[in-house]
Design a protein that fits this description.
Structural class: mainly alpha
Helix content: 25-40%
Order of helices and strands: HEHEH
CATH architecture of the domain at 26-89: 3-Layer(aba) Sandwich
Number of strands: 2
Radius of gyration: 13 Å
Distance between the termini: 31 Å
CATH superfamily of the domain at 26-89: Vaccinia Virus protein VP39
CATH topology of the domain at 26-89: Rossmann fold
Largest sheet: 2 strands, parallel
């Protein structure tokens, strides 16, 4: 059951990354910080545009992403490479 104390309130992502089910990076970041430590591995079996992998990288975690659709895989690679090109984005918490 959802109660006001256990519901996450995050802004939605519209028209994001050429993917129909995009979500804000804050969502996987919240769970990654809650359940993992630095240098742990985060598995995203439905990688889509790579949001979870980007969040894991920024938080100092390793990541494994699995995606069947080539167009989403290419988009995820692009997003991951983009964040790696700007190392100041990495936030070790």
């Amino acid at each position: 059951m959802a109660y006001p104390t256990n519901v996450l309130h995050l802004a939605t992502e519209c028209g994001n990354k050429n993917h129909s089910a995009a979500f804000p990076k804050e969502l996987p970041s919240w769970f990654i910080k809650l359940f993992t430590e630095e240098d742990d591995v985060v598995l995203d079996p439905f990688m889509g545009s790579g949001t979870t992998c980007v969040a894991a990288y920024e938080l100092g975690r390793n990541y494994i992403g699995i995606e069947l659709k080539d167009e989403y895989y290419q988009e995820a690679l692009s997003n991951i490479h983009e964040i790696k090109r700007t190392p100041t984005q990495r936030k070790l918490i």
